[in-house]
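FORM 7B: Structural annotation worksheet

SECTION A. Query
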Amino acid sequence: METIRNYLESMFRSMPNTPEVRRAKDELLQMMEDKYMELMSEGMTENAAVGTVISEFGNLDELSESLGISHFLPERIENIERQGRTLLIDEVKDYLRDDRKTCVIRALGIFCFIISPTGPILADGIFGGRGLIEGIGTGMLFLLAAAGVFLIIYAGNLEKKWKYIRKVPCCIDYSTAAWLEEMITQNEPKMSMIRILGIICCILALVPVVVLDSIRIFHDFFSAIGTVLMFVIVGIGVMLILFSSGYLSAAKKLLHLNDKQTIGGQYTRMQQEQNESGKKEGFLSVYWPTVTCIYLCASFLTFSWEITWIIWPVAAIIHSVIKMNRKAAMNR
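SECTION B. Predicted structure
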């Protein structure tokens, strides 16, 4: 039966999403199911029954008149030409795997930016920050910042392999859309927990500073360690938030490749909800690059690294609030 449903959805994918077309699709599905059950009751094998049903009901051009949707066929042809090629499931899985790799690399790059001030802090607090030690600390700052830039650029280069998905008209079939929705549904609770853990890290990052700064013996040493731990914990928190936010973003983008005015754009519940709610993807797609630019500009113009780090936890929390508000809007 699943094969019949997939075939039916492929037949109607490029049809306009109207009440008449949806009614005709439901009617044809019922006819196909009835025929399938009849053939199975007669002792026909499953594969033979499926083949017979498809051969009898598988030509939409021939059935459109009886279904009352023949006047939609010209629009269907136009939609087929506009939608371009269909992405295969293996291609989709490869794209998602590379996108997750890109997400991890970009998160590591941001982590390097955040912990870059730890070099001068360690040099000054533990080793006195004089002479060669001061130079090493400053060198660590620029080395980590350079590593962050390299990782972000490298992540951007990895994405170029798949830029045709954004540039060239593509679409997905019903089985791929169903698989994507199931994958998103299964992983969203895990990503939510990781995002919450990241926010907790950002909130608790000041604890090591408060605790270690209260130690009076070797005060400079413990104060420096506390500050370094603060940067590391904030870096881990932001990295977790970035990872959890980006892990499923590519899958959600794939669900929106199909024209939302067609049946193919309404395959899944997520497609229907997000098409109705109106998306903020344009804003979110440039959110973290903008935050990175602001952080680098503020840090290198003021050299107040001990202050500008606050940009990251604040930006992470704002990003989470935007995502939660958008999800709440979809559910209303």
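SECTION C. Observations
Residues 32 and 180 are 26 Å apart (CA to CA). The two ends are 33 Å apart (CA to CA).

SECTION D. Sign-off
Analyst initials: ____
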